[in-house]
Amino acid sequence: MTETSQKRVFIRTYGCQMNVYDSERMAESLNKAGYTTASSADEADLVVLNTCHIREKAAEKVYSEVGRMRMLREQSGRDVKIAVTGCVAQAEGAEIQRRAPAVDLVVGPQSYHRLPELVDRVERGERSIVDTDFPTESKFDHLPEERSAATGASAFLTVQEGCDKFCSFCVVPYTRGAEESRPVASVLAEAERLAGQGVREITLLGQNVNAYHGEAPNGGSGTWNLAGLLRALGDIDGLERLRFTTSHPKDMDEDLYQAFADNPKLMPYLHLPVQSGSDPILKAMNRSHTAAEYLAIIERLRSIRPDMAISGDFIVGFPGESDQDFADTLKIITQVNYAQAYSFKYSPRPGTPAANVEFHVPEEVKSKRLEAVQHLLNEQQLAFNLGCVGRTLSILLERSGKEDGQLIGRSPYMQSVHVMAPQHRLGQMVDVEILSAGANSLKGRIIMAQQAA
Ligand code: 5AD
Ligand code: SF4
To answer: Is 212 helix (H, G, I), strand (E, B) or coil?
Structure first.
């Protein structure tokens, strides 16, 4: 690399863990193309906005951020290039450059492997490049061979992309495309590298991760499911904990239930969104399961792992949601008793079937319902946390806390746990007696450091 070797890139990431993972991979491939990483947009020659389309007014927020970047470019007098990637790039495509001509490059999630080449074309003066095709080749074929060194004890690893479920409110099937799984051998190779770099916990990512069916390794026939993949990951030395997210109720299979019983490294925590507790609304959402079927899954999980912590997503105010439908959502929350959950007011996403439906729920009704759902979920979260007081939990210490001498780690149930401990314990697993709990975190004291692996 000649001139480009001095260039700096700043990537701003919005949205889910999948985007965090993609941003890291983009940074790596741009590093290889001669870019170093800038710590802020002010210092960068290339700004990448890696966008998310799931939240309300996502596109509008991207346009205002592009406006800020354009101002920055004008004020600095430097030739800063602006790229928009991620799901808004995919959904809006060329519209982005029509509305925001300051954007030099628009790249959808299926085309990240072409990023260095596209940036090079921008560098050479080409303008208005849009690459949002769904290529016929697998995007997993193009992952960088080597990841740069992992920075913490916990890492994400994408094993599956896309979604074929077409929930009527959701843009993901349109922005991330059809379900695709990464071959087993490629996942295992990356996990081994991560373990070699000191990673103790891996969270497997996928929009529909439990639909995983990756090509078998070593020329074996057929595919492996998620439980099979988790079993093989469990054999990797140094890895202590496995998690996966996000799952769909329809794709819970017998092997996966059994994994929670048989795989000692699989943590007793499952993010399993139900969205609503009302059957008519679930049908209108095209969720392809009923409330009773969801409850049966939870019951089965708890019969296998009684301490299973369940997390979920809820949408209130979906078009046509009556008071009775909403009461059914509160009911299912009470029946499941969540350890943690996310809840949202429905908002239409252009191009999705639900956006064209009439009978939208008035905004003030949505607000009231959201408040009621969040109140109940917060109560459950606090109760779950308080239930841990007095127990001894195994904690992976991941980062420094705000207070001097404080470290923060995670429990098996994904809770943040604060302890006083020396810095050198970072990255270690320790046994912690839980002394107190709030809605968002626990406090405890280390009673024994576990054997280093
Ligand atoms: N309105 C509100 N919430 C939504 N989600 C997805 N699409 C919408 C929408 N149109 C929520 C769902 C999903 C989570 C990631 O975001 O609950 O599980
Ligand atoms: Fe969206 Fe439904 Fe697919 Fe989840 S399962 S990504 S909510 S379409």
So the answer is: coil
Chain centroid, CA 334 distance in Å: 26
Rounded distance from Cα 220 to ligand 1 centre (Å): 38
Dist. CA 158–CA 140, nearest whole Å: 9
For residue 182, CA distances in Å to 15, 166, 189, 302 come to: 22, 21, 12, 30
Q: Return d(Cα 407, Cα 175) in angstroms, integer.
A: 38
Set out the domains of the chain in order of their start, with CATH numbers: 7-131 (3.40.50.12160), 139-386 (3.80.30.20), 392-451 (2.40.50.140)
Give the whole-number percent of the chain exceeding pLDDT 70. Answer: 94
Q: How far apart are CA 235 and CA 238, in angstroms?
A: 9
- The one-letter code for the residue type at 276 is S
Note the pLDDT tens digit of each residue in 65-115: 999 999 988 888 888 999 999 999 998 888 998 899 999 999 998 888 888
> In ligand 2, which atom is closest to the CA atom of 246?
4
Beta strands 309-316 and 269-271 are parallel
> How much distance in Å is there from the Cα of 54 to the middle of ligand 1?
6
Q: Provide the CA 252 distance to its chain's centre, in angstroms.
A: 19
